[in-house]
Amino acid sequence: MVNATHSEIQQAEAQDYARYDRIWQRVAPAMNPYPAVRASAAAVPTMAEQAHIAPAAVPAVQESVPNAAAAKAELSLPGAQADPCCMGSDAAELSAVLEAFAQEETADASTYRQLARYAPSRTAAAALRELGNAAQQRSRELWAALYLITGEQKMSGAAAVILPRLPYRELLRDRYHASACNGLNYNRTAEATVDPCLQRLLQRFAGENYAAADRLLRLIAQVQ
């Protein structure tokens, strides 16, 4: 392009941005990633159009330097938008559900810690404490996800859980069913959202709760 005219250079740039524009329309049709460039590219006639325009009718190209706002718009990415591609408005619809999950995980963590006191062996007690720590970590991550979605800093307080007066094995049975149901509910919620990051988080928590149910099954099998 060393010997190309100014008009030819503009035409090549317009074709490049037209190709990029078609890609963006497939990936994110609602977005306008470079409005200033799109507007200037649309103003440049194609080679076919130039062939039918008399030389006197071709308007002079006005050179302009894009202002700071236009340059910023050209360089913006989906994640920098007011409505981000992850943990944005698509996830906000489930804010109340996520808060309920966070509170439930906090209560589960307290339940596991109390169960560990009734465990017949140190190994079983350690396993129950680990399950409690995992539940507490999920609660923290759910509150962090809510912060990403809403911008509000929240955290559940300490859960006051009182175990029913039941045999240790029966308490484990209750925890097994609770963990399995948690896994099911996380999966159902993951299917209900189109937010990719929230979906991945909920699917991971579903797997962790099912794994906890499997571990509780093994603990029940060890009780005579």
What do these coordinates show?
- The protein is mainly α.
- The chain is built from nine helices and no strands.
Element pattern in H and E: HHHHHHHHH
Q: What's the average pLDDT?
A: 76
Query: What structural class do the secondary elements suggest?
Result: mainly alpha
How many H/I helices?
Answer: 9
Largest sheet properties = none
First and last CA, distance: 84 Å
Identify low-pLDDT runs.
40-66, 73-80
Let me know the number of strands.
Answer: 0
Q: How would you describe this structure in keywords?
A:
single chain, about 220 residues, mainly alpha, 9 helices, elongated
Topology of this structure?
Layout: H1 6-27, H2 35-43, H3 47-51, H4 68-75, H5 89-92, H6 95-118, H7 122-150, H8 168-192, H9 196-222
Helix pairs in contact: 1-2, 6-7, 6-8, 7-9, 8-9
Short description:
The protein has 224 residues and is mainly α.
